[in-house]
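Me: I hope this is not a bother. Any chance you could explain this protein sequence and its structure tokens? It all follows right here:
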Amino acid sequence: MTGTAPIILADLAARGVPFALLARDGATVEVLTGDVVDVELLADIPLTDATGTPREVLALVPFRQVVERGFACHDDRAPLRCLIIGERVALPLAEALAQLPTDRVPLADAGFDVDDEDYAEIVRQVIADEIGRGEGANFVIRRDYTAAVGGDPVTAALTWFRALLEHERGAYWTFLVSTPDHLAVGASPEAHVSARDGVVTMNPISGTFRHPAGGATAETLTEFLSSTKETEELFMVVDEELKMMSAVCSDGGRITGPHLKEMSRLTHTEYMLRGSSTMDPRDILRETMFAPTVTGSPMQNACTVIARHEQHPRGYYSGVAALFTPRPDGGHDLDAPILIRTAYLVDGRVRVPVGATLVRHSDPYGEVGETHGKAAGVLGAIGAIERDRVAEAVDEDAPTAERRRLADDPAIAELLSSRNARLAAFWLNPQGDAGDGPYAGRTALVVDAEDRFTTMLAHQLRHLGFEVAIAHWSEASSERVAAADLVVSGPGPGDPRDATSARISRVRDVVAARVGAGAPLLAVCLSHQVLADFQGIDLAPLASPHQGLQKTVDVFGTPASIGFYNTFTARVAPGTVRVGGTDVAADGTTGDVYALRGPAYASVQGHLESILSRDGLTTLERLVAHALAPVEV
């Protein structure tokens, strides 16, 4: 219910009741109180009471919840904690500030749990051993800034909440959650997923520009926006979140942006993704665990890489705070920011986890610096360390309406919008109705080799008219593989030559079964490499991984701009156009194979479904048409 009696924030702390403070609109602070219940699964979040009446719930979802999807983690059994809201009061921002404490919170024994040189070495290992061996395109590895906290922890959290309200701008949520044995206070810049009246929104943010002395300017920001690493980093996380959108939205999701996320000491680049869904919001949350901006891609293997290289469990870092609000129709809306830029107070210590996104271009010491910048952004804002005032915008103290926005600078706006010229129009423009394409009435089975690019492939195939099913490689039975009009054997991480991998062995079986039966097959990325090996074409690692790389290549006489996410390649002698009964499209200099076609089969090394594939849909349609064409006897 909505409260009407005066609320005194100090009373909440003194009474020890569970509560949450949320600042979401810039004008008010929502004060939520209620009872705490811990549940095991997202599906168990109690959105109704014993009588079936909808209720409002704030859930803290820890990173370990990825075990619901079968993903790896250091499992600390952090609880999926639910605050069942019994009362909510909206305090004007000025009134809330007047009630919050201001005394500085003393800290001691402060520093990172992983020192700079050790973290730089982890970066090197991830680039060489994970990205360099085909395990994925990017990975986020965290380190924690920790310190001992003096005084009452709830008072410390209230003090820091006030400081964030006063000194951090641009946050999506500024929040404090106080429950037994758990305190979290933060200013998350990033909405992971929201669902309102059937419209799902995701907000991938990537690229971090730390403001220089004197504040950010158009000139200093231009250098950041022109960075290949920063641009490709954002494109990769958009691709990863489009995989999620395609899994939960009937229309796959449409991209708008890019935009700037301007904060007090940091500026990020972001896109907005929107689509329609009728799914239960708890299922939407499950299918989108968790943001690639704080894990990596592909998601399943990113979790495995995190478990290999991080020393301790993540707790709630990179999970979400999920507010489920009843609608008049009996359903619930969802608002779920990512739990980053957050301080956790446990057993007399504060912990501020921060991570850097590691890609093939990463400089180890640059990534060390990024973690310092993110930690300083939180710690400085809350006054735990001296605020880097010279790095704040010179008009930081001006009224919000008068603060200058770099995004309004014409040159910056043009530089941002020019990025979209590289991207696939299919994901930028309204897509129209699926199901009325040239292959209406035909079936396609997409075999998922543990890269959810398959959800985007499936969405494109539906726009070509196919009735599409996706099967995990372990569930792609011989009967299902044989029954489909078209099998699309999908991408996945790893070395295609790995004879010990059950996943790659099953991909080999699928490819061999379809080729042997003369049944239509399209093989993508990893499966393309497997098909090439099946045809006697050599496989080799690339000298430099093509993770998130856009190239224009010749695909059987037609130039195509395609996005590549590969560490291995099939390779022929330069100039080779045919191997046995298979046509080969390859680089004229290196011999790297971009596409294959033969009787009832075709393949492509790139990802035609990626936002980086400007010519993706037309190339997909050409290769599908070849695979389905009658075979001349």
The CA atoms of residues 337 and 343 lie 15 Å apart. The chain has a mean pLDDT of 91. The radius of gyration is 25 Å.
